[in-house]
From TrEMBL:
InterPro entries: Glyco_trans_1, Glyco_trans_4-like_N. GO terms for molecular function: glycosyltransferase activity. It holds the Pfam family Glycos_transf_1. Residues 170-296 form the Glycosyl transferase family domain. It comes from the Bacteria. This is Glycosyltransferase family 4 protein. Residues 18-131 form the Glycosyltransferase subfamily 4-like N-terminal domain. The lineage of its organism: Bacteria, Pseudomonadati, Bacteroidota, Cytophagia, Cytophagales.
Amino acid sequence: MKIAQIAPLYESVPPKLYGGTERVVSYLTEELIRQGHEVTLFATGDSNTSARLVSHIDEALRLNPGIQDPIAHHIIQMQDVMERAEEFDILHFHNDYLHFPFSATLGKPCITTLHGRLDLPDLQYVYNKFKDRPLVSISDSQRKPLKDVCWAGTVYHGLPLDLYNKGEGKGDYVAFIGRISPEKRPDRAIEIARKAGIKIKMAAKIDKADQPYYQKHIRKLMDQPHVEFIGEIGEAQKGEFLGNAKALLFPIDWPEPFGMVMIEAMACGTPVIAFNNGSVPEIIDHGESGFVVNTIGQAVKALNQIDLLDRKLVRRTFESRFSAGIMAESYLHLFERMIPKKRKRIYMSTEMEKILNTYKTKQAS
């Protein structure tokens, strides 16, 4: 199958540091190629991929201080996609709704995975206007704000099985990974660790938009003796960081569409203590791969019981539900459903070729 993967340009594929969407696009692209498909990736020029790369810009937009208008570059990317659309059996977009005004005119099947939150009021106007565009959710919870749209399916994110190894959790600390932002609730994580009497290591980024929140609410908490702020880390550091942690704290306060770090922790055999919001109850098997809680008190109690969980079982749960292979197979199933006529024509032409060859052989004899 000839597949176009269209990624946002804010980060490279995969990202150098933070960037969940671009990381998923990378894992999916590489797995599709491993399974024998021909993939073209529309992404930034500094992306590292086995696919054919199409790009007009050398560097990810977030890392380029000279970028003033990121939408301008995405418009160029959309034009590149339009000009090459005939080359593909299907086009898979990861750019939210940017392509909606033209994708239906391409004459090719298009599908869009939505990676972000969908409960923002302005989004209702867009998705109500383009109700016929096939959409993929990354959790069932993510769908709730958009009822009357064309959901093609839900596909959970996946990681390569060999990306991380099971750790032993002997670091005597709990981990926090994510943005320092109100919805991620780093303050909760710090309080949970304090009340449980354990050290917390925080590997987190601070966006410019979140600087006021950090300065007002979080900075003073970092001075506590049980808190170690590491800063933003990349994929290469995550395995050791998560594998040595007794648990990952995921005390979110918003409808998280998926939560990539939860399955990264599970891949390391590290159980997750997560607040019951968004996708959390879909990802975490309570009492097996972690604990789903509603209060800080429940989180502290869960942390005190964390050694009762089997880290081998946590890893096996990841392997059975959240591998890149499972993710790719799920997407391929959706792709197949969208291009049945093409595949039927290929099948019929092959059968006809067999009939004709048999007829020619008989004629020759």
